[in-house]
Structure formats: structure tokens, C-alpha cells
Amino acid sequence: MALVNENFLRLPGSYLFAEIAKKIAAHKSEYPNHHVISLGIGDVTQPLAPVVIKALQDATLEMASEKTMRGYAPDQGYPFLVNAILKNDFEARGISLDADEIFVSDGAKSDTGNIGDILSADNIIAITDPVYPVYVDTNVMAGRAGTLIDGRWSNIEYLDCTAENNFIPELPKQRVDVVYLCYPNNPTGTTLTRTHLKAWVDYALANEVLLLYDAAYEAFITDPEVPHSIYEIEGAKQCAIEFHSFSKTAGFTGLRCAYTVVPKELKAYAQEDADISLNTLWKRRQSTKFNGTAYIVQRAAEATYSPEGKQQIRAVIDYYMENARTIKSGLETLNMKVYGGVNAPYIWAKTPYNKSSWEYFDFLLHHLHIVTTPGSGFGKSGEGYIRLTAFGNRNDTLEAVNRMVNN
Ligand SMILES: *Cc1c(COP(=O)(O)O)cnc(C)c1O
User: Fold this and answer.
1) Is 182 exposed, middle or buried (0-12, 13-18, 19+ CB in 10 A)?
2) 214 lines ligand 1 (CB under 6 A)
3) Other beta carbons within 10 Å of 374
4) For the chain, how many structural domains are there in total?
5) Domain containing residue 345
6) Structural domain contains residue 327
7) 150-189 pLDDT, tens per residue?
8) Contacts of 353 (CB under 8 A, 6+ apart)
9) Which helix (DSSP H) or strand (DSSP E) does residue 304 occupy?
């Protein structure tokens, strides 16, 4: 008799975006002639950069010949990509890392979800609230979350991020072992400055806490006070794993390429040993359960670091950030309280008239045919907010903002 992993049965209802998709489908069948605009899901819309397409084509042709075809990739990624990452994302910021501290993968969702494989089920986890749902759900699957009581898991420490604390999480009040941080933040679009992040690193070092730092939106940072990598902070190599992705940086959501940094200085504990290398464990985990990112995709990722590549992906990010400014200033003319949108492609807006997230979501869908994401879907502290994304195309974004401003 095959028994299931019962932790999966603890997960509540349908995933947020499935619920939204259902509502959109119902709305579209009710109003078949309306142009429904989505500022909802965090997915890119603009084409891949020309250098990326060229790299994909060239690498595909290499695969067509016996002399140049490639089979399995090296476990941690091809040196051409790893070296480009080290040089551009780290050395350029004064951070020195070794090639074997970088693990190229197929996504930051998989990596942030899988990292729990190397961590004990007994760890107490802290997450910010609202939060990217992957961190919570993967801990539930691993049996690390406890039971769900009134929308919150009994073994998870929630760090509320609200307008009252400027969306800056306070350090945990009780003892925790692992903290997930995502900055620039999805869903709120807010950031931590160098000073804030240093407080987290100092806390983690003093309390032997592991930080899991998701930097998926690093490329959207405009403010010089906001670090692009946690390793810009002294001591972070001893307490933090960092996740990067080409998905939002270069529009790779459909291509799939990411990387995770696990410094060799980073140690954790076993029952009888205080000196276990997480780099060694992650290497073992990845080489056992993952067989690498496609050669052609790694070549495409490498191309984003060429001088033309950098210019081309910057132009697309600028395009999205122009959308962010349009949304932000449009909502501000409605006197709505609006956060984010400056260092991140997300705008986090307080609902008017104290409407709940879903009430305001329904209002925008039914009256203005605009899809957003209800803040409450990201956690209890997201109630009373909606998230709008800047990843749409320009015309749709302008049209959606016009509908809101003129209604
Ligand atoms: C989009 C996103 C990612 C990227 O995930 P991929 O699997 O690399 O596409 C990672 N973290 C957060 C918070 C995200 O929003």
C-alpha cells in the first residue's frame, strides 16, 4: 500500500493564482466583448533580448553537429556562465566568490523550494508576511510548518511587514533557525537599505541563524543605498545563501535559468557536529537530484552579460519601470496609499474605503475589467492591499491606469 506524504494534505485550498484564474474565466464568459487587462501575475511580456535569441540559435546549431554537441552539463553549470556571473554580479560589486560557490539551476522557485532538503525538519522558520507563497508551502510539504490555525502555521514565526513599520520586518522576538528574506520584495515592491540588511546579518551571526536571501528582483534596484547582494554586507558569507534568477532580470521565465550562491564559509549544525558545510550538502543534493540547465539556455544566460546584452536587458527593465511609474503616479492621483514601484516591478496599494483585498479585486475586475492580485493571498498582513505588476505591455498598462483614474 502506497502511503502519501500527508504534509501535502495539510496545504489549504487551491493556489492563489488558480483562484484568480477561475474568477477571470468566469468574468470573461460573462463579458466576452471587454478587453480584460491583467496587472496580476508576475510574469514578463516583452520579447527576449536579440543577443539572447542569437545565443540560442548559435548554441542550437552547435547541438546539430557531432563535434560540437553537448550532453550533460557540469554539475554546477558551465564555466563560461559561472565566470560571467562571478565577474559581473559579484566582482563588479567588490564581492569575491569562488566558482564552486555558484550553482546554476533551472529556477529560483525550484532552488528556494528545494533548499529545505538540506535542512532539518526541526528548524524553526521565520518568514515575512506578506510573502512569496513558495517559502511557506514548501516548508509545509517538508513537515516543518506545524498546523494551520486561523490562517497561520503554528511552527512558523511571521514577521509582519505593513505600512506601520514601513514594510521593514523587525528581528524575530523568539529563537528561530532560518529566515527567508526577499528584497526587493515580492509582493510589496519594498526594499531593505544597507543599514537594515546589516542589522539582519549581524543578528544572524550573533544567533547562528541561516538567512535565505532571494535577490530575484536585484536588477530593478535604482537606489544606491539598496544592496544588490547580501554579500555586500560584511559577514554575510558566514550566514546567508543567496538566490538569483534570469527570469525577471532578462525575461527568462519561459527559458529557465537561475543560480544559487552557497559560500564555503557557511556552516550549520548536526547533532554531533558544529561544522557542516552547506556548500557540500547542496552540491550533493543538486548532483543527485538535478541534471543541469540546458547548454543552449546557459549560453543564452551568458549573452546577457555581454556589453550589448547588458544594454538590451536594461532597456526592457527600464520599460517595465516606466510602467511602474505610470501605475504608481496614477494611483497617487486617486489619493491611494501606494508602496514599491521604485526599486521593483511591483506596486503594493492600500485598498480604498477599507475594502478587503478580495472585495477590491472583485470591484476592479467587475467594473473596470482589470486583474490584480489580492494582497491577502500573500499572507495575513497582506489583507487590505492589492498588488499590481509593471510587467504588462505599455498600452495595456496605460489603458488600465486610465480606467482607474477616470472612474
Ligand atoms: C519570480 C520570482 C522568482 C523567480 O523564479 P524562477 O523560478 O527563477 O522563475 C524567485 N523569487 C521570487 C520572489 C519571485 O517572485
Assistant:
1) buried
2) yes
3) 25
4) 2
5) 14-43+308-405
6) yes
7) 889 999 999 999 999 999 999 999 999 999 999 999 999 9
8) none
9) none
pLDDT tens-digit readout, 272-329: 877 899 999 999 999 999 999 999 999 999 999 999 999 999 999 999 999 999 999 9
252 and 298 assigned to the same domain:
yes
| 2 inside domain | no
pTM for the model stands at 0.97
Q: Please tell me the residue having the least CA distance from ligand 1 atom 4.
A: 108
What CA–CA distance (Å, rounded) separates 192 from 178? Answer: 18
Distance between CA atoms of residues 240 and 238, nearest Å: 6
Is 246 in the same domain as 202? yes
Average pLDDT, the chain: 96
Q: Which of 305, 325, 343 is at the close of a domain?
A: 305
CATH number at residue 290: 3.40.640.10
CA distance 376 to 383: 4
Q: Is the CB of 84 under 6 A from ligand 1?
A: no
Do the domain assignments include residue 4? no
Q: What is the CATH number of the domain that holds 334?
A: 3.90.1150.10
Residues 322 and 186 in one domain: no
Task: For residues 36 and 118, state if they share a domain.
Answer: no
333 lies in the same domain as 298? no
Using the 3D structure, point to which of 305, 328, 363 is the last residue of a domain: 305
Q: What is the pLDDT of residues 355-407, one digit of tens each?
A: 999 999 999 999 999 999 999 999 999 999 999 999 999 999 999 999 999 98
Quote the pLDDT of residue 119: 97
Q: Residue range 231-259: average pLDDT? A: 98
Burial of 283 (0-12, 13-18, 19+ CB in 10 A): middle
**Best probe residue, ligand 1, of 180, 212, 248 (max atoms within 8 Å of C-beta):** 248
User: Is beta strand 385-389 parallel, antiparallel or unpaired with respect to 346-350?
Assistant: antiparallel
Residue bearing the CA closest to ligand 1, atom 2: 216
> Do both 247 and 372 map to the same domain?
no
Q: What is the pLDDT of residues 3-31, one digit of tens each?
A: 999 999 999 876 788 889 999 999 999 99
